[in-house]
Amino acid sequence: MSFVFEPMPTVGIPVKDSDSLYPVRRVYCVGRNYAAHAREMGFDPDREPPFFFCKPNDPESIVPVPENQAVTIPYPTETNNYHYEIELVVAIGKDGKNISTEQAKDYIYGYAVGLDMTRRDLQMSQREKGRPWEVGKAFDYSAPVGLIHSIAETGELDAGDIHLTVNGETKQRSDITHLIWNVAETIANLSTLFELKQGDLIFTGTPEGVGAVVVGDEMRAEIAGLTGITVKVV
């Protein structure tokens, strides 16, 4: 049997100090997982179970960012309010479901810096109508991701500066200790809803300070201990 057309290629993200690529299977994102960001979006943060949404895993959506190189992404259609959101990205390295928080670190392959680019006006209009967020979150070039650092290299990341600049000016700065649901808790919660598998990426949420970028703006996203990424809007 053959396919009626050529299947979509698998996106591979470079791994630090390796010739291998990490193959992306699914992309999960956690919504409003920093208290200050939840407040700036008009919500009172609490410890209710986290909620999740997804981004596509295709080569038009996931943008691997090589080390020491900037990438360009196009300003998307149908928006006048295009936002950056820096996030710690967790790469899953082992299949599992109903994972405990104590076991969660055993399922982590590594970590990366990511940007959850957002058509904020479309997201908000859909939210106000009680509709899904896909048009605001799951569009082409919406997920730049840097090199993946293995957990063997970094150790378990439960603290560290997270910092984004636009044209050299700091816009977001926090610490991943401020996650409402930390990485282990996020993995545990998500694994009750889906069986996590090798190749899954989890965008763990963004701190306060989100805002718009326009054509010509250059973003630099950094998390302590990981390779930062530079992304320019064209």
Question: How would you characterize the overall build of this protein?
Answer:
It is built from five helices and 18 strands. It is of the alpha+beta class. Strands 4-3-15-8-9-12 form a six-stranded mixed sheet. Strands 6-18-17-13-14 form a five-stranded mixed sheet, with no helix packed on it. The protein is globular, with a radius of gyration of 17 Å. The mean pLDDT is 95.
Briefly summarize what is shown.
This protein is of the alpha+beta class.
Topology overview:
Layout: E1 12-14, E2 21-23, E3 27-30, H1 35-40, E4 52-55, E5 62-64, E6 70-73, E7 82-84, E8 86-92, E9 108-115, E10 118-119, H2 120-128, H3 134-137, E11 143-145, E12 149-150, H4 151-154, E13 161-166, E14 169-175, H5 183-193, E15 201-203, E16 211-212, E17 218-223, E18 229-233
Parallel strand pairs: 3-15, 5-11, 6-18
Antiparallel strand pairs: 1-2, 3-4, 7-10, 7-16, 8-9, 8-15, 9-12, 13-14, 13-17, 17-18
